[in-house]
Write a structure and sequence with these properties.
One of its GO terms (biological process) is chemical synaptic transmission. This is Synaptic vesicle glycoprotein 2A-like. Helices cover 60% and strands 9% of the residues. The chain is of the alpha/beta class and 735 residues long. Strands 3, 5, 6, 8, 10, 11, 13, 14 and 16 form a 9-stranded parallel β-sheet that branches. Strands 4-7-9-12-15 form a 5-stranded parallel β-sheet, with no helix packed on it. A two-stranded antiparallel ribbon has the order 1-2. It is elongated. It starts with a helix and ends in a 12-residue tail after the last helix. About 12% of the residues have low confidence.
């Protein structure tokens, strides 16, 4: 009996214990399910009506963990229970395994309809000012969190890969500046370019880049850095390719204009794009290193011109209508950096900062995880996990325009493009809002002064070198007075001579070249000119009696105020009236000078990269501008070709540090949603200043040095003074 009693008591205790365990388990399951249902309801309500919440409820919206509020994700306060798991990650559940740090996606709105759609109050429109204030708060919190995330991702293989990819795009911009200047002497012969036409061809690239910088900079803030850069580089490469084959001046001018429009987006997008993958302690240094690719582009263009253009055998001809000479091969080769940049850029992701600014949390998280994992694997730590589970996203203001499925395709495109234009223009106008107005005006003045002096002087230097060469050439001119020549055959080159009041009877000029030859007040009787190629050759106030011109380029334009008596022109050569051949004779010197001037910026690039984060952007910008201003006064001592080349190298090596600091400062002064818009506008202003500087400075070549020196030094002094009034951005997060 005792055994039976003990058995019954033990059985009753076991049953009571089992019931207690079941109650506890049921309670815990109910709590967990309740939390899940409540969270889905909250998420659906917030995602569906967040644009219409009352501003008084803002405190409730920011109840989650720091850095997670207001975005697509937020932590629930009830997740702090001792037995609860993370809402975004789980350790090891019985049903499924999700490893720490693994992303689990955004709960869709449909998931919450069953649980909590009922009872939601009717939405009410919110004050735009309140929405903008909320957006501003979101941006400030995102800036802080994004910097922390970049610190966790580290700096390594991914950033260096992107560095070389974007470097190719910047290299293409450097090449574009030099192309037209190198091909002008050769293109002049094929297209019969006048001096005004040559001047327009030299400036058209800057005008195209001015338009492109403004357009592509504005679009990059709306449709993305990577996508906009791909479109702009594609336009550049396509029209650069076409410009290599077109024959007429107008078509070549248009292709170079379109090519310039395409490459105009390179600088504002490249620097903004790369900066958004760099932590603040690396940003100034590595953006300065990126500037070196502009120098590499100039070196590439100079080397290719040196190697290709003088080789006239690299050409073919299809009749007299189509000619493909070596300079066209050079134009084609100069499109390679742009094509290479397009190919490499297709392997790189969009800027995660752009995605976060536009409310795309998923895409941004995946890219940042890719950056983290790529760098950790390269450093030998593949086991390190990307611990970020939630990232701040910014409140969106723009609404998509829906036309319905029945609308025509052209109507949809028209509405989309119109909406995009208004968004870009509105974003541009905010650059001049009260918050940024002073900064924008100051930056405009600094950009204009820097560009006006730099581009004006860098074009004035080569023109001055050419002027000095011409002066030295003219100093060796031989003059012949009242010579009488009869029954003589000239079959050798005649160069740099002046013949006055001469008499030539029954003379033959056969199979020769005439360079810089002038005949004044001379008589040619029963003479024969055959197979003559000339340049800068003129017959002034001369008389030709019974003279034959056979297969020559001595067109009547060469005969100034001259009389022709019983004289005949047969089988004139097809071609252009060339006024000077000094460019052809000194082609190697032109390429060599450009090569040296571009290479001279290497020391300045290195110094600015190493010191940018140590002394600050403003000191670098103002200090380099002051030293450049002082160096301008040495121009007065440049009375020889070698002296001008040395001064060109000195000025380029010093001023490059100013440009590097200005690029970094521009990136850091504006927030992410206005960064490329502001940069593009300032870069467009830079190209406008370049056109003005080139036009003004070159007009004083051979006239005076004082005016260019005063203009350049005054602009640089003003720029350095204004630069010190700008805010310092060293050590700050990327706003």
């Amino acid at each position: 009996m005792d055994d039976d009693g003990r058995y019954r008591d033990g059985r009753a205790d076991f049953i009571r214990g089992a019931k207690d365990i079941a109650k506890v388990a049921k309670k815990q399951v109910g709590k967990k399910v309740g939390r899940g249902v409540d969270k889905m309801a909250d998420e659906y309500t917030r995602r569906s009506y967040k644009r219409f919440e009352e501003e008084d409820d803002d405190d409730d919206d920011y109840g989650g963990a720091p850095g997670n509020d207001g975005g697509y994700y937020r932590d629930d306060g009830r997740a702090d229970d001792g037995d609860a798991h993370s809402d975004s990650t789980e350790g090891h559940d019985e049903d499924d395994e999700i490893y720490e740090g693994e992303y689990q996606g955004i709960p869709r709105a449909e998931a919450g309809k069953a649980g909590g759609a009922a009872g939601v109050p009717a939405p009410r429109l919110r004050d735009p000012a309140a929405l903008e204030g909320e957006r501003r708060k979101d941006q400030e919190e995102l800036a802080q969190q994004y910097e922390v995330i970049l610190q966790e991702c580290g700096h390594g293989k991914f950033q260096w890969t992107l560095y070389f990819v974007l470097g190719l795009a910047l290299m293409a911009d450097g090449v574009e500046i030099f192309v037209v200047g190198f091909v002008l002497p050769s293109a002049e012969k094929d297209m019969c370019l006048s001096e005004p036409n040559k001047g327009m061809l030299g400036l058209i690239v800057y005008l195209g880049m001015m338009v492109g910088a403004f357009v592509w900079g504005g679009l990059a803030d709306r449709i993305g850095r990577r996508q906009t850069l791909l479109i702009s580089l594609s336009i550049n490469s396509v029209f650069a390719f076409f410009s290599s084959f077109v024959q007429g001046y107008v078509s070549f001018l248009f292709c170079r204009l379109a090519s310039g429009v395409g490459i105009g987006g390179s600088i504002p997008i490249v620097f903004s794009y790369y900066s958004e993958f760099l932590a603040q302690e690396k940003r100034g240094e590595h953006l300065s290193w990126l500037c070196m690719f502009w120098m590499i582009g100039g070196i590439y263009a100079s080397a290719m011109a040196w190697a290709i253009i003088p080789h006239y055998g690299w050409s073919f001809q299809m009749g007299s209508a189509y000619q493909f000479h070596s300079w066209r091969v050079f134009v084609l080769v100069c499109a390679f950096p742009s094509v290479a940049a397009i190919s490499a850029l297709t392997t790189m992701p969009e800027s995660p900062r752009f995605y976060l600014e536009n409310g795309k949390h998923d895409e941004a998280w995946m890219i940042l995880k890719q950056v983290h994992d790529t760098n950790m694997r390269a450093k030998g730590f593949p086991e390190r996990v990307f611990s970020v589970t939630t990232i701040k996203t910014v409140q969106q203001l723009d609404e998509l325009v829906q036309l319905g499925d029945n609308a025509a395709w052209h109507e949809k495109w028209r509405v989309k493009l119109t909406s995009l234009f208004h968004q870009v223009w509105s974003n541009f106008q905010t650059v001049f809002s009260p918050e940024y107005r002073r900064t924008t005006y100051m930056m405009m003045a600094v950009w204009f002064s820097m560009s006006f002096s730099y581009y004006g002087l860098t074009v004035w230097f080569p023109d001055m070198i050419k002027f000095l060469q011409k002066q030295e050439y003219r100093s060796r001119t031989r003059v012949f007075l009242r010579e009488k020549v009869e029954h003589v055959t000239f079959n050798f080159t005649l160069e740099n001579q002046v013949h006055k009041q001469g008499e030539y009877f029954n003379d033959k000029f056969m199979n020769l070249k005439m360079r810089s030859m002038v005949f004044e007040d001379s008589l040619f009787e029963e003479c024969r000119f055959e197979d003559i190629t000339s340049s800068s050759t003129f017959f002034k106030n001369c008389t030709f009696i019974a003279t034959l011109f056979y297969n020559t380029d001595l067109f009547k334009d060469r005969l100034v105020n001259s009389r022709l008596i019983n004289s005949t022109f047969l089988h004139n050569k097809e071609g252009c009236l060339l006024s000077d051949v000094s460019d052809e004779n000194n082609a190697y010197m032109v390429y060599f000078v450009s090569f040296l001037g571009t290479l001279a910026v290497l020391p300045g690039n290195i110094v600015s990269a190493l010191l940018m984060d140590k002394i600050g952007r403003l000191r670098m910008l103002a200090g380099s501008s002051v030293i450049s201003c002082v160096s301008c006064f040495f121009l007065s001592f440049g009375n020889s070709e070698s002296a001008m080349i040395a001064l060109l190298c000195l000025f380029g090596g010093i001023s490059i540090a100013s440009w590097n600091a200005l690029d970094v400062l521009t990136v850091e002064l504006y927030p992410s949603d206005k960064r490329t818009t502001a940069f593009g506008f300032l870069n467009a202003l830079c190209k406008l200043a370049a056109v003005l500087g080139i036009s003004i400075f070159t007009s004083f070549v051979g006239v005076t040095k004082a005016v260019p020196i005063l203009f350049a030094s005054g602009a640089l002094a003003a720029g350095s003074f204004l630069a010190l009034r700008l805010p310092e951005t060293r050590g700050q997060v990327l706003q």
